[in-house]
Design goal:
2 copies of one chain form a homodimer. Chain A has 343 residues and is α/β, with parallel strands linked by helices. Chain A has 13 helices and 11 strands. In chain A, strands 3-2-1-4-11-10-5-6-9-7-8 form an 11-stranded mixed sheet, sandwiched between helices. In chain A, a hairpin with a 4-residue loop joins strand 10 and strand 11. At the A-B interface, helix 9, helix 10 and helix 11 of A face helix 9, helix 10 and helix 11 of B.
Chain lengths: 343, 343
């Protein structure tokens, strides 16, 4: 791949279908000049969608397929569609080197299984991790990983996640030395499980890595913006992420109820509309779209199933950044550095 | 103990000190007629605080001690203060049968360690659990347990937590057959760890218990009000609870920022003040105060360290309910019933 990477897009995944994926790619190209695309899916639908985006059409090749992975497909069923589906062919394009990275808004479990099987884990990484960006009160988002790829993890897995998450934070957010912490049930050294304590000891002793290890972080501090990379196993991460999502929705639902509870409140709400729109914007997942599978030989981005064109554009943008800045090489270097110290 | 129980109060714990604990006890007595108290701590301070509450004074005995457990005491240090501290003597009153239950706003780890050592786990329960009530969008709060007493749990522990949590929900919220679910990373039967799947299988097969087992619940549904008792190990529970607390604060902080971002928003905020006060009231931990240690030979309630008098009154009220309705007997019966079926 050249300096301006080509991104393979699974045009058939996601609730919004082909039009949203194509509109997202077009929007990303406005931000990321010279970006090229491989659109994978139903050629007729893709061509129709491209009619609205002549700028994109010129930079795009199409791979036609009728096959799709559905939201109901179990990972094992999806793997049988690896060769015929838009998702499978998008990943295959990365494997063959025809694309630098792939973006899909489809079934997460299927994408993870296919990507892992086709691309394999990169040298030095035992297990890939799913990482996402979440909003904070600070100057930048926070990277959280793993978010569901690995229910059980050992200390080595967590250390590798910390190294990969730090490379992601440097690439996606332009940080020089991201602050890294392990999610735990307390901040004292003796808190938590053996696995977490061992991972902390290893990260504490590692010198010269482009990250600042800050020890443990508790669940109530995740959105404070004081840490840039939060590391956990896929079980804890899923619990934390979903508890955060549910609570954000809970509070905004309560707010909606409160604001519609009287005429006076309704008037107040209308007047302060710009304020609540600001809140909505800050919490809108489309502004933080794109979970990335780290640790594979290739970049695969998972866009929210319900992402709109702006959300897809964000995911494509992050994918292009990761490809251009060669996150795989960054992780390899950090791993080698870490190994040399702990050997 | 008689029909109107006597509650032992650790008068020295909590950020607000003696005055808040005594005011809380007085407020609880207005709601719970005939309630009696044992106030444990510095006699001079307690007597001074009682001057404002003649109604309470008549129903109160005082146990004087100079010793206190501080917020910094590790559980091991606190255990050495078991005999001389206000916290230790309040628990001791429960052990001797001088009080039906104890309430403290002091150091949680210390309270847990002291209560466990003094009262021991009840027959049939392997480990006690810390349970709390959280607000929901539904008609009642939700019970979550365990919230930190046990980092690692086996399937039997989780089943016992479900039985204890269900008894708590019946007592504290007046539900007949609470809906019970296990916290997991998905709702399908094969999701999660072996421990969680085994616990689910055991609860699914149990018939005739006064609860409705609903399978798994994910982190984004905790506040929906569709489940009354959510069961998890202390690690996951800590992560979920703190993620919820942090996110509630995050969203309300964003809201405050948004509302103060322009003059127009400020005006809107002032007009809709009753609405935001309603939100504040709903999220105020004082309205859901009182985490209970379930599974001991005696009732011990942990009130928030920062609880105000209304919060302490809520904790005392819950404690009195648990004593009057004899939660220990309820749990014993359900356990026997469960054992008879699975034997």
């Amino acid at each position: 791949m050249g300096l301006t990477p080509r991104i393979a897009i699974d045009a058939m995944g996601g609730d919004g279908g082909v039009r949203v994926m194509v509109a997202g790619a077009a929007a990303a190209r406005h931000r990321h000049d010279g970006l090229k695309f491989l659109l994978v899916g139903d050629e007729v639908q893709i061509k129709a969608a491209l009619d609205n985006h002549p700028n994109l059409r010129a930079a795009t090749d199409i791979i036609h397929t009728d096959g799709i992975v559905t939201g109901d497909d179990k990972p094992s069923q999806a793997l049988r569609k690896a060769r015929g589906s838009s998702m499978g062919l998008a990943i295959d394009a990365v494997k063959r080197g025809d694309a630098g990275g792939a973006v899909s808004s489809g079934n997460t479990g299927a994408l993870m299984a296919m990507a892992k099987l086709a691309l394999r884990t990169m040298p030095g990484i035992d297990r890939p991790a799913l990482a996402a960006l979440l909003p904070t009160l600070g100057d930048n988002d926070v990277v959280m990983l793993d978010l569901g790829a690995n229910t059980d993890c050992d200390a080595n897995n967590l250390v590798q996640f910390a190294i990969m998450g730090s490379a992601y934070a440097r690439t996606a957010m332009g940080l020089k030395e991201p602050r890294v912490a392990l999610l735990n049930i307390g901040t004292e050294e003796m808190k938590g499980t053996d696995v977490i304590r061992d991972a902390a000891a290893a990260l504490r002793s590692a010198q010269g890595l482009p990250m600042r290890f800050q020890g443990f972080i508790e669940g109530d501090k995740l959105s404070r913006g004081e840490i840039d990379v939060i590391v956990h196993d896929g079980f804890s991460g899923n619990i934390a992420l979903k508890s955060m999502e549910g609570t954000a929705r809970f509070v905004t639902d309560l707010l909606r109820r409160a604001f519609t509870s009287s005429l006076r409140s309704k008037v107040g709400f209308l007047i302060s509309r710009p304020a609540t729109e600001l809140l909505k914007h800050h919490l809108d997942p489309n502004n933080h779209n794109g979970a990335v599978f780290l640790g594979l030989n290739g970049v695969v981005l998972k866009s929210h199933g319900s992402a709109n064109a702006a959300g897809v554009a964000n995911a494509v943008h992050v994918c292009a950044e990761l490809v251009e800045k060669d996150i795989t090489r960054q992780v390899t270097e950090d791993l080698a550095n870490f190994r040399a110290q702990t050997a």
